[in-house]
Structures are given as structure tokens and as C-alpha cells.
Amino acid sequence: MNQITEAFLHDIPKTDLHVHLDGSLRIETLIELARERNIPLPAYEPDRLKEILNIGGIHENLESYLRVFDTTLKVLQDEDALTRTAFELAEDAALENCRYIEVRYSPILHQREGLSLPVIVESVAAGLREAKKKYGIMSGQIICAMRHMPPQSSLRLAELAVAFKNKGVVGFDLAGGEMNNPAEKHAEAFAFIRKNNLNSTVHAGEAYGARSIHQAIHDCNAHRIGHGTRLRENGDLLNYINDHRIPLEVCLKSNAQTGAVDAIENHPLKFYMDFGLRITLNTDNRLVTDTTITEEYKLACQVFHLTYDEVKRLVVDGFKSAFMPFRKKREVMRLVLDEFEQVSQKHGLRSEVATRGVSRYAIDRIGEDPMPD
Ligand SMILES: [Zn+2]
């Protein structure tokens, strides 16, 4: 019987497709940047600051969780801070063998000191480039429009994303509080993204019901769904998303903190996997949620008793769902599967599906064709 250990989960190659730059600073960096810039913080000692901001704690709702960003955004208003935090985020991910990350943020929230939108994107790109040079970690940026902002600002951000397509930007997103801010309001920006052949994802089904996922798919033509926690409330839509292999970006710990689920045990992750949905595991916010990608895998394994083959499937689905050109993805997938095999051998783990001769998910055929569906 395979024993999935934390060391194994740390060593396997992973992705993080849903991680917010402004929610993923190191706490020490937040304090240091604030000091350097004379920005007052409620505390300057890491543990005390974490306590005051309720970092890693349970929040009343998504809106209260999002208030932590008021503090982090104060220090992210210049080029150096953006480059440094982007580099450190990629570095932290690389050090737990995350091979590919898609870093998201809304450039419009970083203009308080007068930075232009292109300079903001270039500053983040510089940090990610540096991390690639040092650790080999691949990455891309996702530009977020904000639900509560006017549709015109979403359109400006969509134009920015398209201008930087293949120059660091790999996708477009809609973030922020879902309540009273329907995605359809931003349909024009998403139409512009679609016409320009750019990838998109939308935060949906986190605080609001399955209707927000319906809007994300049909009004915004999202290629992936951020969270999708409440998709289980609409079986018809669940089947549509499954049939079209639309990936869900699941963030377990964050969902328990924002109240999207009342406890991780009640997250639909296992039901979704058993149903055949394409599921990816992600951090959402390394700082605000106080998590890592290894921690998210660990939680999934502990709470849902995942098997070795299910862990492998999550890894494979992570890379499959990346906003990466198909041909490049195929190459990356070959390397990832080789590495997964080596790490498994090192930890004495092997497929249980193959030994039983039963193929539930066609994972055992991946060696022949890395993209079976
Ligand atoms: Zn998010």
C-alpha cells in the first residue's frame, strides 16, 4: 500500500495556476517594504501582524478576506516592490518544486503612485524572468479585471493584456467580490479577449451560486473557472463543464477561510474528481491564506484520502490546464511525467491502477500519449 508523505508531495513537480501576487508576499517582505516607504502598518512584528490581519484565519465572508489586500496593496506601488515580490513568489514556488506558475493581479490597483499600466506589467515580468534564470521555473501573468469596477476599466485592462500577449501575459481574469457584481457586466472586455485569441479564466462559484459559473462560461467564455466550489448546485452545468473539459482551479484552504465551504471536509473536490472533472490544486494566496502548494496537496490527501494515482492525476491536470501553447505543453508534460516517475521510485511509490490492470482515468496510457484528452 502506498504511503503518501509530505516529502513526496514536496518533491513531485507541480503547478500553481491560481495565485494572486498581492496576496502572496512574504510577511517579512511586507514589513520591510512598508518600513522603507514609511507606510504605517498596524504592527511590525511578523506574528503580531499576522494576528491583526487574521492571516490564515477564518473570515466572515469573501469581502472580509479581501480586506487584507488593502494592506498589501499599500506597499506594491512602485517598480522595485513589484519586481521583488514577483521574484520572491516564483522563488518560493520553485523551492517546493512548483515548475510552472501563473501569477495574477490587477494592474489598475498598483497605480496609486502614478505607475503606468505597461510599466507595472514589465516590472512583474522582470521579477519572473529573474526567477526563471535562477531556478528554471516557468511562469506567465494573468491580468485581472475587478468585478466592482466599471466595465470600461475592464476593457482597458483587456487591451493591456492583449498588448502583452506572448510578452509575459498568458491570460485574463475577473476577480473581486462576487456578490452584486455579476460577470456579465464585463462581457465586452471578455469579448475583446476572445476576439484576440487570448485565454481567460473567471473567479466564480466561490461566494455566489452556480449562476455566476454559468455567466463565466456563457457571457465571458472562460476557458477555466477560478474555484467553481458551488458548481455542485447545478448538475446540468456540471456536466457541461465536464463534457467540455473546462478545468476548475480549486483552492481548498482559501475556500474554508472565505466561507465558500464551512470546512474542507465539505469541499466537493473528491466528488468532482470521481465525476471526472478536470481539477487543479492551487494556493490562491500564499500569504493571506498562509499556505503553499505542497500544503494544498497535503490537505487534499489527508482529508479525502487520495490515492497515489489520484495525486498523479491532479499533477497531470495541473499541467494540462496551463495557459501554455499545446506543443510546448506536450514537451513539458513528457519531462514532468519522467520526473514524477523518478520521484515516485525514490519514495518507493507506484501506481496501484496499473497493477490491478484497471484504467479508470487513462493515466497509465500517458506514457504513449501525454495528452489523452
Ligand atoms: Zn483568487
Task: Give short descriptive properties of this protein.
single chain, 373 residues, binds zinc ion
Overview of this protein structure:
The protein is an alpha/beta fold and 373 residues long. The protein has one domain (6-365): TIM Barrel (Alpha-Beta Barrel). Helix content is 47%, strand content 13%. An eight-stranded parallel beta sheet has the order 1-2-3-4-5-6-7-8. Bound molecules: zinc ion. Residues 18, 20, 175, 203, 226, 284 line the site of zinc ion (ZN).
Set out the fold topology.
Layout: H1 6-11, E1 14-20, H2 27-36, H3 46-52, H4 62-66, H5 68-74, H6 79-94, E2 98-105, H7 117-135, E3 138-146, H8 151-163, E4 169-175, H9 187-195, E5 199-204, H10 210-218, E6 224-227, H11 235-243, E7 248-250, H12 252-258, H13 269-275, E8 279-281, H14 293-304, H15 308-320, H16 326-346, H17 352-356
Helix pairs in contact: 6-7, 8-9, 15-16
Bound molecules: zinc ion.
Brief synopsis:
The protein is α/β, with parallel strands linked by helices and 373 residues long.
